[in-house]
Design goal:
This protein has 289 residues and is of the alpha/beta class. It folds into two domains: 6-98 and 115-125, Thrombin, subunit H, CATH 2.40.10; 165-288, no CATH class. It has 14 helices and seven strands. It has helices spanning 14-23, 80-98, 108-117, 158-163, 167-176, 179-186, 194-198, 205-213, 219-227, 229-232, 235-243, 249-255, 261-268, 275-288, and strands spanning 6-10, 29-32, 43-49, 56-66, 70-75, 121-124, 144-145. Strands 1, 2, 3, 4, 5, 6 and 7 form a seven-stranded mixed β-sheet that branches. Helix 1 crosses helix 2 (80-98). The termini are far apart.
Length: 289
C-alpha cells in the first residue's frame, strides 16, 4: 500500500494563521504553497504547525490546483472535535494579537519584510513518522490528530442536533439557516441538501466556492451554481467546477470558454480528467492559436 504523502504547513506568526483560517480553514480547506502538486483527488496528510504549541495532523483530498500557488486540499471530517481544535488555535491567536502593541512608525522596508513573512510555508516531508512506533489507536505524543469521523460530539451540540434532523427539516434549515448552520450542512453526506443551500439568500461567495470544490457536491447544485451569473463570474468557481468530477460533462465543456488561455492550456495537458473534457480543452487551445 502506497504511503500517503505528508506536508508540513508552518505559520510564521499568529496573524498568518488567522488569515489562513478566515480564508480557508474555517471552510474546510487548506491551500498548500508548494509544487508540484500530487494527483487530483488523491489523499494527503497535513501537519499543521502553529507558531507555538502542538502541531495538528489533518487528512484531506486534493481538489484544486492554483497556477503557480500550489494546490487546495479539502479537509476530511467536520466533526465537533475538529471544529473545537481549530477554534482553540483561533482563540490563542486572537489572545496573542491582543497583547501586541502596534509600533507607532513602520518603515516601508519593515512593511515589505512583514509581508514576506506573513504567508505560511509548505514542504513535503521526506518520511512521515512511523505509525508503528505508537500504540494502536493513537499517534506519537508529539502529534494531535483531528478525527475524521464524528464519534465524540456530545449530545445537544449544534453539530449533533443538525445531523439528527430529518431530511425535510434539513432542507428547511438549508433555506433559512445562518452561516454556521449552512457550513455544517455543506458537509452533509446527504447530497440532496446541497441545492437548498444555494437557495438561501444569505449564502456567501466563499460558501459557493466550497461547494464547487467539494468532490461530493450534488450535480444538481453544481448546475445551479453555473446558472448564477454572479457566482460563475468568479474564476475560482469556474476552475473548481471544471475540475470537480461530479460536474456533468456538458457543463464542464461549456465552462471551458470561461477559463483564461493559460488555465485552458494547463487543463489540456492533464491526463487525470474525463477524456471528452480533455479533447474539448485541446480543441479550444488549437482554436486560439
Amino acid at each position: 500500500m502506497d504511503q500517503i504523502p505528508r506536508y508540513r504547513h508552518s505559520y510564521p506568526g499568529w496573524p498568518a494563521f488567522l488569515d489562513d483560517y478566515e480564508s480557508n480553514l474555517k471552510f474546510g480547506g487548506c491551500q498548500l504553497h508548494t509544487t508540484p502538486p500530487p494527483p487530483m483527488f488523491s489523499q494527503v496528510e497535513i501537519l499543521l504547525e502553529p507558531p507555538e504549541g502542538q502541531p495538528v495532523l489533518l487528512r484531506g483530498q486534493v481538489v484544486m490546483e492554483a497556477v503557480g500557488q500550489g494546490f487546495m486540499v479539502q479537509i476530511e471530517g467536520g466533526s465537533l472535535a475538529t471544529q473545537q481544535a481549530l477554534e482553540g488555535l483561533v482563540e490563542t491567536a486572537r489572545q496573542r494579537q491582543s497583547t501586541l502593541s502596534p509600533s507607532p512608525k513602520t518603515s516601508a522596508g519593515d512593511q515589505a519584510d512583514s509581508s514576506d513573512r506573513s504567508r505560511p510555508t509548505t514542504e513535503l516531508m521526506e518520511e512521515a513518522p512511523d505509525r508503528a512506533e505508537a500504540p494502536a489507536g493513537r499517534l506519537p505524543d508529539s502529534l494531535v490528530r483531528m478525527p475524521t469521523e464524528d464519534l465524540t460530539a456530545p449530545e445537544g451540540t449544534l453539530f449533533e442536533r443538525i445531523r439528527s434532523l430529518g431530511v425535510g427539516e434539513k432542507k428547511r434549515l438549508a433555506l433559512s439557516g445562518d452561516r454556521e448552520q449552512r457550513m455544517i450542512l455543506a458537509r452533509e453526506p446527504l447530497a440532496v441538501i446541497h441545492p437548498f443551500l444555494l437557495k438561501n439568500p444569505r449564502i456567501t461567495l466563499d460558501e459557493v466556492l466550497f461547494l464547487a470544490r467539494n468532490g461530493q457536491t450534488n450535480p444538481e447544485a453544481l448546475e445551479l451554481i453555473a446558472e448564477n451569473k454572479r457566482w460563475i463570474s468568479d474564476s475560482r468557481i469556474v476552475q473548481a467546477m471544471v475540475l470537480n468530477p461530479k460536474s456533468p460533462l456538458q457543463l464542464t465543456v461549456r465552462l471551458l470558454d470561461r477559463l483564461p488561455p493559460q488555465e485552458l492550456r494547463r487543463i489540456a495537458k492533464r491526463t487525470d480528467l474525463k477524456q471528452a473534457l480533455l479533447q474539448a480543452a485541446r480543441r479550444r487551445v488549437l482554436e486560439t492559436k
